[in-house]
Write a structure and sequence with these properties.
Layout (H helix, E strand, L loop, with lengths): L1 H13 L2 H59 E3 L5 E15 L20 E5 L4 E7 L8 E12 L9 E12 L3 E8 L29 E11 L4 E13 L14 E14 L5 E15 L2 E17 L2 E11 L11 E4 L2 E4 L1 E14 L2 E12 L9 E16 L2 E14 L3 E15 L1
Antiparallel strand pairs: 1-2, 2-3, 2-4, 2-20, 4-5, 5-6, 6-7, 7-8, 8-9, 9-10, 10-11, 11-12, 12-13, 13-16, 14-15, 16-17, 17-18, 18-19, 19-20
Length: 433
Amino acid sequence: MILRALGSLLFALALPAQSVDALIERLDKLERDNNALRQEIERLRGELGMLKQQATAQAETQEITSRRLEEQAQAKVEASQKFPIRLRGMALVNFFHNGARANGADTPTTAARTAGRATSAVTFRQTVLGFDFQSPRSILGAEVTGSVFGDFYEGNTETSQYPSPRLRTAEIVFAWKTRSLMFGQEKTLVGLRDPTSLAYSGVSPMTAAGNLWRWQPQIRFEQRLALSTSTQALVQAAVVQTAEESGGTPGALPLERRRPALQGRLELAHNLDANRRFEIAGAFHASTTHAGPYSIPSRVYSVDWFANPVRLLEFSGVLYGGQNLHHFGAFRQGWAVTPTGAHAIHTRGGWAQLSVPFHPRVSLNLIAGAMDDRNRDLTAAMIASNRNAAANLIFRIAPNVLVALEAMQIRTLYLNGGLSRNPRYDLSIAYQF
């Protein structure tokens, strides 16, 4: 072997220099080819790993999609035009006790002049059912959505007759990026906000005590403006159809039951941070009631607000003043007839709510409201003022199940009959869907 190695060495030494260089170049080429092949193998391994990851992700996505399709198949309602409709609402049962001056109403809004008998009962009539819908195609660049909601509040009790379905709200909305146009029946611009309560759903909380709540047909336009990264403005205008009612002398004059009204509202909102927000708005209403030969103006000016300056405190409400307000769910005494003619009744009022969401599942709400008519505008049988105060504690015992305890006292002052008081206590159970 030593002789063979020496022979190879002598043979290499005997080669010319050009042959050595060619051998070295060939070896370098082989090394480069090996490196390139190694890199290609690594690349293919990486691509194979990515393909495995993608296959796993795709399988997970298909499983999630399959589950969602199964859920939608259980919950989806499809319209005749093949666009989806979502069922939404609240099954609500109220166990309640009313004082002797509830005047036979399940959800009294004033205290009667004379005492009757205190009552305790249960009702499902405030259950709310509705649909949300959305068009799959835009119209003139606008997304089209809508909703219809109703309840069974019409009728006095469940036992005297079967309660009739009642339309609450309905809307068709054409929404662009910064503006929208709504055709529907909703709360009006002078009273958009509502106190929080499960005891009062058939009529809004603080009805006839500061809450101008009545749902009315309207066409509403909204323009949204971004004043800065944290400050926004909302400009709203609406043409509303009012529901006119008689004044102090029912049936004495022929009444035009539906009248047009003009409303406007300007809201400013500022985000203090991701969780704290401040909103304040001013609104107005203008219309005219036609009763017999008389034209009686209806004017309202209101301010509403919402603020949560700290995490565990929310403050909201509405203040208003004006004349002839009966078509907003206030007293049915917007105007009066005297020997000298018909005149509007001036009034002022509002409500405020302090909410303490001291736990994600528990919140406390303290509410007070008042409506005070100007005494010199009233006739002898009318209500001078009405004040309500309520407190409720709402527990969310499951994601869609609420239990609430509420206590309220109504204090009604009659112009010639003194002060009447009526308490009300309520246990509510709501299943939201």
